[in-house]
Amino acid sequence: QVQLVESGGGVVQPGGSLRLSCVASGRSVDDYALSWFRQVPGKEREGLACIDSINDRTYYADSVAGRSTITRDDAKNSLFLQIDRLKPEDTAVYYCGSDRRTYCSPLREGKLDYPRDIWGQGTRVTVSS
Predict the structure, then answer these.
(1) Per residue in 60-97, is it b (16+ CB within 10 Å) or e — as a string?
(2) Rounded to an integer, what distance in angstroms lies between the CA atom of residue 87 and that of residue 12?
(3) Distance between CA atoms of 69 and 58, rounded to whole angstroms?
């Protein structure tokens, strides 16, 4: 059984950066496509980025494209999301997750689907001055 544990959230000023981490156990991170998504209380989950397990191809939602990078470290069995130029609207709980398949969902109208199979407990990011 795969378990995911996120960390790295915190309070950051607008324009700042964060690097979120997700450590996997029970399965190798390169077995599946892995995603980052976020949720604001009362709102729908928003897919942010995905990396597939076939050739490490990455996908980004328009909301974070150009200022975020998803990477995977197989040696550490971990997934990362670097987000730069943070904005107050980036305030949310951030999760890593997977649908336990090798490929990412396609980008549709600038939006990325979020995984519905497994995810961690989340890490809170607050962007505020």
Answers:
(1) bbebbeeebbbebeeeebbbbbebeebeeebbbbbbbb
(2) 9
(3) 9
Dist CA 122 CA 75 (whole Å): 22
36-45 pLDDT, tens digit per residue, is 999 998 999 9
Q: Is the dihedral of CA 96, 99, 101, 102 positive or negative?
A: negative
SS3 at position 96: strand
Confidence of residue 123 (pLDDT cuts 50, 70, 90): very high
Please identify which residue in the block is written with the tokens 């979120």: 20
pLDDT one-digit tens code per residue, 72-120: 998 999 999 999 999 999 999 999 999 999 999 999 999 999 999 999 9
- Residues 40 and 122: their CA atoms lie apart, in Å, by 12
